[in-house]
Structure of DMT family transporter:
Amino acid sequence: MRYFAYILALLAGSALSFEGAIYGELGKTIGQLETSFYNFFMGSIIMGLLWIFFGKGKLSYAVEAPKWSLLGGVLGVVYLTSIVISVPFVGVGLTMVAVIIGQLIMSMIIEHYGWLGSKKTRINKEKIFAVISMIIALILIY
């Protein structure tokens, strides 16, 4: 199952690069905020249909969930809109490397403190070296 998760994550990363390129271009045509709206509108329709036919959870329990756990939608808007704005200026590659660096740094902080229900994993020199290497890669790609 672990290897399947790695493959799934690689596919998700590939899809995000395609999405960034597609929506960067669409943003030039219809506008950046309009592109983000289009993404979430179409995604809501598709997810609504999947939920109707395959959903097994209880959406009504969202009011009982910790309030911080409902921020995912807001963060998704920030993420996608940032990509739509960034890609036309710096390209898909630089945007995605910068996104990954941001993810690495914030993931390390979240896990270091065990925030948001995550398992505590201390920041070590290897992780810091990995982030520095990614920053160097960003500079070299540019």
